């Protein structure tokens, strides 16, 4: 009997230890971890510099509340705003909470209520972010949703032109839809969103919870497309495993969130912030980001060479180290077979296998993963 609500279809693996790209199960089995805790441990498991920063903070204080000045929050916010080319940060604890903050910020800033999001999007599990999510299965059974969310087809500029109006507070999207199936947005579509937001006085929100913090080879994925969003959200990899999320905004929004208007007891927790500072210092570095780009090219090429010709593989798509392999095989069966052979991978949408390897992964580890994928896919 379990004392936990059965909210997760758990795998048969129980981790004992993990380091870098490798996880060791309680039964001693070795796994190549290409899930990174669902896009969280981008520097691998327990990177020494982040662990040292956490230990150092643990010896000072763990929590004091946001009534106190915490200069480390300023350091983290400076790194984050420099990385994004933006101005101000609110720290939360998770992706959903960051998106919740972004939605509140957009509504208060504009005095409008309509938020446009897209089919197959995923923005979180709280009431506002569940309402923002363009997937019915996430909402079933939870009663009336928060109102004034509109879902449009992804990459459809015409639909947006018809929907956006003077009551639109914001348009919100992931530049690569992660949970929904690894669907990248098109440059032209993104340009149109930005333009239409400007023309209609709506804010442009980019959810970088999964795509951000170096995952695609730039600090944030929107930077591949030369965009200037008004609000960007971050979480997942920001603390490399310690819980932290962030709303990043432009200076023009500074007065919207005055004292008492928004807050979080744990938001910007000192231990999580210590992890985030060290994580960003490592990832927001030209050489590191260039290595991510190189690795993603290497892995994409290897995957194409070894898998594209297989009948079970429909397409391979993605951006940087966020890769989707669309397949005709039932995902739970495929993922279990991969685990048996020592590779941990994820599902995305209905029929896409998702790889989110640590950005520190080695060529040998990528070769091994491709070999396992080839062997398992070929067997079907
Ligand atoms: N936004 C995106 C794009 C995500 O991928 C996720 C989680 O998968 C979330 C928001 C929600 O983040 P969290 O689970 O930290 O609340």
Produce a short descriptive summary.
This protein has 380 residues and is an alpha/beta fold. It contains 11 helices and 17 strands.
List the helices and strands and how they pair.
Layout: E1 15-19, E2 22-25, E3 30-33, H1 36-39, H2 48-58, H3 71-84, E4 88-92, H4 95-110, E5 114-118, H5 127-132, E6 149-152, H6 157-163, E7 168-173, E8 176-177, E9 183-184, H7 187-200, E10 203-207, E11 231-234, E12 245-249, H8 270-283, H9 286-307, E13 313-319, E14 322-327, H10 331-340, E15 343-344, E16 346-348, E17 352-355, H11 363-379
Parallel strand pairs: 3-15, 5-6, 5-7, 7-10, 10-11
Antiparallel strand pairs: 1-2, 2-3, 4-12, 8-9, 11-12, 13-14, 14-17, 16-17
The structure holds pyridoxal-5'-phosphate.
Structure overview:
The model has no long low-confidence stretch (mean pLDDT 98). This protein is an alpha/beta fold. The two termini are 35 Å apart. The chain folds into two domains: 48-283, Aspartate Aminotransferase, domain 2, CATH 3.40.640.10; 286-356 and 368-380, Aspartate Aminotransferase, domain 1. Strand 8 and strand 9 (183-184) form a beta hairpin. It has helices at residues 36-39, 48-58, 71-84, 95-110, 127-132, 157-163, 187-200, 270-283, 286-307, 331-340, 363-379, and strands at residues 15-19, 22-25, 30-33, 88-92, 114-118, 149-152, 168-173, 176-177, 183-184, 203-207, 231-234, 245-249, 313-319, 322-327, 343-344, 346-348, 352-355. The chain contains eleven helices and 17 strands. Helices cover 36% and strands 19% of the residues. The strands form four sheets. The protein has a seven-stranded mixed β-sheet, with helices on both faces. The structure holds pyridoxal-5'-phosphate. The site of pyridoxal-5'-phosphate has 14 residues, from helix 4.
């Amino acid at each position: 009997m379990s004392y936990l609500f059965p909210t997760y279809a758990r795998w048969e693996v129980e981790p004992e230890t993990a380091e870098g790209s490798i996880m060791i199960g309680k039964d001693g089995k070795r796994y190549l971890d290409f899930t990174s805790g669902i896009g969280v441990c981008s520097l691998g498991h327990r990177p020494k510099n982040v662990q040292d920063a956490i230990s150092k903070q643990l010896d000072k204080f763990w929590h004091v509340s946001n009534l106190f000045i915490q200069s480390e929050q300023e350091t983290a916010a400076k790194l984050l705003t420099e990385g994004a080319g933006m101005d101000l940060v609110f720290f939360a604890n998770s992706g959903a909470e960051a998106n919740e903050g972004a939605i509140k910020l957009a509504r208060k800033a504009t005095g409008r209520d309509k938020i446009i999001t897209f089919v197959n999007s995923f923005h979180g599990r709280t009431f506002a972010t569940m309402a923002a999510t363009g997937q019915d299965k996430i909402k079933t059974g939870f009663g009336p949703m928060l109102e004034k969310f509109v879902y449009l087809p992804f990459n459809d500029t015409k639909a947006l032109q018809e929907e956006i109006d003077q009551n639109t507070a914001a348009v919100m999207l992931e530049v690569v839809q992660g949970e929904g199936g690894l669907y990248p947005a098109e440059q032209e579509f993104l340009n149109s969103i930005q333009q239409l937001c400007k023309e209609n006085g709506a804010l442009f929100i980019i959810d970088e919870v999964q795509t951000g913090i170096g995952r695609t080879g730039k600090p944030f994925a929107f930077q591949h497309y030369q965009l200037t969003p008004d609000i960007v959200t971050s979480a997942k990899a920001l603390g490399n495993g310690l819980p932290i999320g962030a709303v990043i905004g432009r200076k023009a929004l500074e007065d919207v969130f005055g004292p008492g208007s928004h807050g979080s007891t744990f938001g910007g927790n000192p231990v999580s912030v210590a992890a985030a500072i060290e994580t960003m210092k490592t990832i927001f570095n030209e050489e590191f980001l260039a290595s991510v780009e190189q690795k993603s090219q290497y892995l994409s090429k290897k995957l194409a060479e070894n898998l594209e010709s297989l009948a079970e593989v429909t397409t391979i798509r993605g951006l940087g180290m966020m890769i989707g392999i669309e397949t005709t095989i039932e995902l739970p069966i495929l993922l279990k077979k991969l685990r048996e052979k020592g590779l941990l991978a994820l599902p995305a949408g209905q029929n896409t296998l998702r790889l989110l390897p640590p950005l520190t992964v080695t060529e040998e580890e990528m070769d091994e993963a491709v070999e396992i994928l080839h062997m398992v896919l070929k067997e079907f």
